[in-house]
Design brief:
With 96 residues, this protein is of the alpha/beta class. It is 28% helix and 20% strand. It has a single domain, classed as 3-Layer(aba) Sandwich (Oxidized Rhodanese, domain 1), CATH 3.40.250.
C-alpha cells in the first residue's frame, strides 16, 4: 500500500492545513453518515482527483480498515502522481 496510516488527531491537523479528506464509500453511505469536511469520491469517480495539485495531502477512509475499495483508491492516487497519501482506515477510527 502507498499510504501512511494515520490517526484521527494527525488527520485533523493535516485537514486544518489544507489536506483533503476523502470518503471512498458509496454515495448512500456518505449521505447517511460521513465525517466533517469529507468529500465523497467513490472509486468510479476517482479520476476527478487528477485536477488536484499533486502536492496536496490526501487522507482516505472507507468502511473498514481492510476495505478493498480503500486500498484501490489509494493505489489509484499513487498512480495519479500524488506523493502525500494517508489512510485513516475505517470511518469509525475518527473517534478513536
Amino acid at each position: 500500500m502507498f499510504a501512511k496510516q494515520i490517526g484521527a488527531s494527525r488527520a485533523r491537523e493535516y485537514i486544518t492545513k489544507g489536506a483533503m479528506l476523502i470518503d471512498v464509500r458509496d454515495p448512500v453511505s456518505f449521505r447517511d453518515s460521513s465525517l466533517p469536511g469529507a468529500v465523497n469520491v467513490p472509486l468510479r469517480q476517482l479520476s476527478s482527483l487528477i485536477r488536484e495539485p499533486k502536492t496536496r495531502k490526501l487522507i482516505f477512509f472507507g468502511e473498514s480498515d481492510g476495505d478493498d475499495t480503500l486500498r484501490a483508491a489509494i493505489n489509484y492516487a499513487y498512480q495519479f502522481g500524488f506523493a502525500e497519501i494517508f489512510s485513516l482506515g475505517a470511518k469509525d477510527n475518527w473517534n478513536k
